[in-house]
């Protein structure tokens, strides 16, 4: 296997992604923590590196993004935990002075937030490959899906959304990616290459996988794939402004982490 890093260039007509309606050479839609896409659109594309161009045949291309998704999930869960902890401190102070029905309401909220805190800690552990509840990784994932609904409308909502909603992976022209696969020199359609003169056979470096040994996209850089910002799965209520800001911050952090990891690996 050889590793190729470069910028994406179109080799034909661009696609339009399903959720974000963005021009691209590849898109897929995934649910929550699922690493396997449930819908995919892909086309062949060029990868421009220091030696020129490599034609990427997308038929057997697999995009590995679980690590990037996990980093994003940890960042959002920790932001939700910070918000939840602040609210618990407020409740503790209020319960020193409140009595009767008001105090009962506050205690009920505190008990609810304690359950949400367990959900957030379990989510963070799951993203890091550890088991906090459920006995096994698969059991923990089922537990998270079942208990995420209780986090809506307050601290934990952003994390629950990432666990349950559809999100989109997009590879765009100009994006920097790293591919791992076998490279060969092959004949290609002449229209894919600049004119090489009369009787000259059109050849190029080609990355082509198979069902048994697919091409693997193992890193992203300048413009990392991200959760879809438009046309989400139907939600019961609109997200608060604070929640949207947390998601945007977490997304920016995840992109920065992915870019730094790729830069450090060079």
Features:
266 residues, 5 helices, 8-stranded mixed β-sheet, alpha+beta, 13 strands, 38% helix
Summarize the main sheet. 8 strands, mixed
Query: What characteristic shape results from the CA principal axes?
Result: elongated
Rg result: 23 Å
Oligomer: single chain
Backbone structural class: alpha+beta
Mean pLDDT, rounded to whole units? 81
Low-confidence stretches: 221-239
Number of helices: 5
Order of adjacent strands in the largest pleated sheet: 8-13-10-1-6-7-12-11
Portion of residues in beta strands equals 15-25%
SSE string, helices as H and strands as E: EEEEEEEEHHHHEEEEEH
Helix content: 25-40%
**What is the rounded distance between the termini?**
17 Å
Total beta-strand segments: 13
Give a description of the structure:
There is one protein chain. The strands form three sheets. The protein has an eight-stranded mixed beta sheet with strand order 8-13-10-1-6-7-12-11. α1 runs antiparallel to α2 and α2 packs antiparallel against α3. The chain has a domain of 97 residues. It is elongated. About 7% of the residues have low confidence. With 266 residues, it is an alpha+beta fold. 31% of the residues are buried.
């Amino acid at each position: 296997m050889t590793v190729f890093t470069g910028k994406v260039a179109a080799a034909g007509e661009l696609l339009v992604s399903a959720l974000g309606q963005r021009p691209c050479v590849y898109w897929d839609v995934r649910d929550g923590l699922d690493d396997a896409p449930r819908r995919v659109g892909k086309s062949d594309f060029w990868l421009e590196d220091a030696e020129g161009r490599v034609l990427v045949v997308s038929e057997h291309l697999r995009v590995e993004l679980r690590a990037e998704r996990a980093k994003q999930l940890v960042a959002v869960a920790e932001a939700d935990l910070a918000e939840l902890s602040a609210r618990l401190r407020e409740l503790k102070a209020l319960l020193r002075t409140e009595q009767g029905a008001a105090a009962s309401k506050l205690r009920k909220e505190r008990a609810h937030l304690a359950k949400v805190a367990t959900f957030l800690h379990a989510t963070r552990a799951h993203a890091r490959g550890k088991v906090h509840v459920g006995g096994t990784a698969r059991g923990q994932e089922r537990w998270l899906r079942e208990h995420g609904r209780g986090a809506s409308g307050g601290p934990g909502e952003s994390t629950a959304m990432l666990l349950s909603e559809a999100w989109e992976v997009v590879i765009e022209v100009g994006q920097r990616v790293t591919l791992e696969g076998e490279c060969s020199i092959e004949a290609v359609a002449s229209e894919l290459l600049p004119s090489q003169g009369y009787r000259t056979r059109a050849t190029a470096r080609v990355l082509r996988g198979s069902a048994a040994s697919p091409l693997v996209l193992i890193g992203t850089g300048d413009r990392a794939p991200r959760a879809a910002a438009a046309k989400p799965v139907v939600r019961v209520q609109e997200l608060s402004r604070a929640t949207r800001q947390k998601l945007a911050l977490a997304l920016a952090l995840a992109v920065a982490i992915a870019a730094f990891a790729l830069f450090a690996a060079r």
